């Protein structure tokens, strides 16, 4: 199915399959399996070995990397992460995405924009994807604290990595990977100057975290607070479209 063009009229061929495990996680899973077998087969400590073996399965599951069908639309801003929409607010973009960094490439303009925060629990897929296609103009890593990623202040105090993507038409979107209580490592798959497609894998955050998306001015959220979204598939917003949407939790 990878790379196959699918549409809403039934074109294409799909079948369910187990998601692959990202190479970044295979070593952790194999280490966990090795330790559990050591306790089971060498020491005979089943009370420790069996729980560790189940933990190994959990480690592999954490690093699962399922294929996603990315909508191709000039307006679509897709979710960069799986998880819960935990915050939607009007805020100023981070300074690191606004300031003149000396590269000659403009950052985001000043002024309030809509920020959508997506919280990833340890049960969510943790591969992050580009919300739009374009060129990676900025990749800024900032060390920080490891507060609960569900808190609003995590955007400014936690360890984080800002990414700025610019489309061919000059439209720009910034998003931020934020480490949390358990997450202790942000792993990028891209670098400044790389060209990415919408929904392309750009990195991951190990073991629970959050991603903030800063929509362009005049663009509003298409998702609701409390809604679950899927990276690369859920359309968070449509460029230049701002409308009021309500929903009921049930």
TrEMBL record:
Keywords: Cell membrane, Decarboxylase, Lipid biosynthesis, Lipid metabolism, Lyase, Membrane, Phospholipid biosynthesis, Phospholipid metabolism, Pyruvate, Transmembrane, Transmembrane helix, Zymogen
Associated pathway: Phospholipid metabolism; phosphatidylethanolamine biosynthesis; phosphatidylethanolamine from CDP-diacylglycerol: step 2/2
Pfam families in alphabetical order: PS_Dcarbxylase
Reactions mediated catalytically: a 1,2-diacyl-sn-glycero-3-phospho-L-serine + H(+) = a 1,2-diacyl-sn-glycero-3-phosphoethanolamine + CO2
Catalytic site: 209
Marked site: Cleavage (non-hydrolytic): 208-209
Enzyme class: lyase
Membrane topology: Peripheral membrane protein
Subcellular locations according to the entry: Cell membrane
Cofactor note: Binds 1 pyruvoyl group covalently per subunit.
GO molecular function annotation: phosphatidylserine decarboxylase activity
Positions of modified residues (Pyruvic acid (Ser)): 209
Subunit details: Heterodimer of a large membrane-associated beta subunit and a small pyruvoyl-containing alpha subunit.
NCBIfam families assigned: PRK05305.1-2 (NF003678), PRK05305.1-3 (NF003679)
Homology family: Belongs to the phosphatidylserine decarboxylase family. PSD-A subfamily.
Function as written in the Swiss-Prot or TrEMBL entry: Catalyzes the formation of phosphatidylethanolamine (PtdEtn) from phosphatidylserine (PtdSer).
Annotated protein name in UniProt: Phosphatidylserine decarboxylase proenzyme
Species annotation: Qipengyuania spongiae
Gene name of the encoded protein: psd
